[in-house]
Each structure stands twice: as structure tokens, then as C-alpha cells.
Amino acid sequence: AMRLQAPQFQALFTPGLRSVAELFEKKNYELRIAGGAVRDLLSGVTPQDIDFATTATPAEMKEMFTAAGVRLINNKGEKHGTITARLHEQNFEITTLRIDVVTDGRHAEVEFTTDWHKDAERRDLTVNSMFLGLDGTLYDFFNGYDDLKSKKIRFVGKAAERIQEDYLRILRYFRFYGRIAEKPGDHEPITLQAIKENAKGLAGISGERIWVELKKILLGNHVNHLVQLMYELDIAQYIGLPLNGNLEEFARVTKNIQNLSPKPMTVLTSLFKGKDDVTNLDLRLKISKEEKNLGLFLVKHRQELTKAPGPEPLRPYQDFLMDSREANTNSKIFELLKYQGEEQLLKEMQEWTVPSFPVSGHDLRKMGVSSGKEIGTALQQLRDEWKKSGYHMDKEELLSCLKKV
């Protein structure tokens, strides 16, 4: 059997984990690291969060922790078999091994087991179905490690069965493909067939769950290939994407933004032909207000708000920002520049500080302009002059313009 000794693995052994391991060992309950954290450790990545699996039931864990004076937090996960213990300022989420008894394509009723193989069998993808003993021993029932090394994404067992247990797994397949696979198009035909035949099941999955997965797909690799595939396999219509999405624009924009860290919405908007597409997406996925506003902004301005010919390419963006009365216009403009693939202009725009208009009503009163209406008109005229100068004119220059008037 393979034993992992990587520094990322050694680094997990905090005082908290050592104490947890000791408690389980004393009681002869097995405790292993499960799922995504194992995949990360085998890839040489430090896992963000670690899930543990155990042969102990929730009741046994509670009794053990309570007897040892360990604090338990929120019982929300308990009916799924998850206990969260807090030791040394660190939370440990530990789940009892389980078998799905009944599944409805969204959630499962589970019963507990002590059989590691059976628990691995109900996980979605081979690369997510491995366990790691605290001594570094790898338990891998479905060749997940080989798949990880050869960058293959495969369902555990039969794809159709795994998908029917939870249709969201279709999107998880795409997400991990974008994270692990080396090149686009390296799918098993039988997997694509199973996805196509079960795509409709996504209609019953909540928008919030879909949006979490979709955002990760949009920021992963091979995104152009994966979204094209969503259309080919009839998935798009069930997850809020427009029936006739603009795939050429999508291909162009995904090239533009490769190294620019766009927001997911910036990538997605390139599929949309108009604002109705943003509204429909929002109805299905319940995106945030900020995401919706960004989508509407890009759809509206991507054509006409573009760089100026000549020595001041940034001027249209700067003018737009100066005229805008809305909050976070600058972050929307950054996203627009990413969408347009204007890497250099994006850098300049991010470094540009918005100048403040140097003249106030107070200055005009000192010059003898007294009525509020006149002050308003004069300020607007001076703002226009200031804008024409590229926001360079200072107070004196502006006020001398006023004298001429």
C-alpha cells in the first residue's frame, strides 16, 4: 500500500488533530481523512478544509467528546452523521461512514456503516472517493489515485447511477474536469451519454446549488469547451442559460480574459444577447444583486463603451466613470476591460485615481455669483471645461474661464 509522507500532510498534525486522533485511538474507532482533502494532498496542494470519516456513530462520538470535555458546535449536520468538535481553536468535521438507502436526485436518506468500501461507493468521482489514514496509508477502492495521476475524471461505478442519486453531480463532473483534466475533450463516451440522458434532472435542483458549481466552472480551465459541451448535452436550458447562447462571443471572451481573473458573471455574460438573458438567469439561479447589475452593465455597454483612437484610449472609460452617479462603477469598468481583453488599459485604469473637481459653490460666491440657480449653471459649465481638459485644469484656470463668461 502507498504511504504518503508529503510536507503538506505532516503540516496537518496540529495540536488539535493530535488530540482528536488520540481520543479515537483510545476508543478503537477508525478515523481517516476523506474526499477532497485526500485528492489535494496527493496533488501536493494544502487542502483548504479537511473532512474526516469514521466508523464511530454520531452518538458514540458525542459521548466520547462530551466525556473528554470537548466542545461540540451546531448540531445541523447530525442527522447526516456529521459531528463538529472544536479543539485548540480549530473545528473538526467528522462524519460517520454511511450508505444511501433512498435517493431522490437531490438528497439521500442514509444509514450508518463501518464498511469503508461502501462509503466510498456512494461518492461522486473516483478522485474524490479516497481515504487517507493518519499514518499516511492510502485507501483507494476505485483507482482514484491512478485517475488523478493520469488526470482522468470518472464517476465511481456506473455514471448514470451516480448522477441519478444527485443530479448536481453533472456539474461537479464539469467542475473537476476543469480543475484536473489536462486537455479539453478527454471524456469517456459512456459518461457523456449518461449526462445527456439525465440532463433534465437538473431542472429539479435549486438555483443556489447550481450557481455555486457554475461559478467554479466559469473560473476553471477548459471553460469554453465545457460550456459548449453543456449546449451539446442539452444541459444549458435547465440551469438558466439562454437556449441560443452566443457561443462565438463566449469563445472570444474566454480567450480575452485568460489571465485577468474576471468575475464569473463577466465570463458568463458573453453568452447573453440582451438583458432578458440576465433576467432569466437571475430567475433560475437567484444570483446576487451585484452579479445581476454587472451582467446588465456589460450587456448594455460592451459594444459602445470602447477605447478611443489616438493618444488617450482611456478617456471614454474615465469620462463614463466621472459622469456616473452609481456606486462601484469603477469595478464594473474593470470587468468591462477584462471582457474586452484590454489588459494594458485595465492596468492603467486600476492605477488611475479619480480626480476631484477643484471648484465649489463657495468659490463662486466669493466671486460674487449669488443665486443658487446661477451657481448650479456655472458649476456645470466649469465641469464641462474641466472634462474637456482631461481633468487637468486647476481651480485658478477654471475660475478664469468663468471671468471670460
TrEMBL record:
Necessary cofactors: Mg(2+)
Keywords: Magnesium, Metal-binding, Nucleotide-binding, Nucleotidyltransferase, RNA-binding, Transferase, tRNA processing
Taxonomic superkingdom: Eukaryota
Domain tRNA nucleotidyltransferase/poly(A) polymerase RNA and SrmB- binding stretches: 188-239
GO cellular component: mitochondrion
Pfam families for this protein: PolyA_pol, PolyA_pol_RNAbd
Domain Poly A polymerase head residues, every copy: 31-154
Keyword Disulfide bond listed: no
GO biological process: mitochondrial tRNA 3'-end processing; tRNA 3'-terminal CCA addition
SUPFAM superfamilies: Nucleotidyltransferase, Poly A polymerase C-terminal region-like
Molecular function, one GO term: nucleotidyltransferase activity
InterPro entries listed in its UniProt record: Bact_CCA-adding_enz_type3_sf (IPR050264), NT_sf (IPR043519), PolA_pol_head_dom (IPR002646), PolyA_RNA-bd (IPR032828)
Family: Belongs to the tRNA nucleotidyltransferase/poly(A) polymerase family.
The protein, known as: TRNT1 nucleotidyltransferase
Organism: Pteruthius melanotis
Lineage, uppermost ranks: Eukaryota, Metazoa, Chordata, Craniata, Vertebrata
Gene name linked to the record: Trnt1
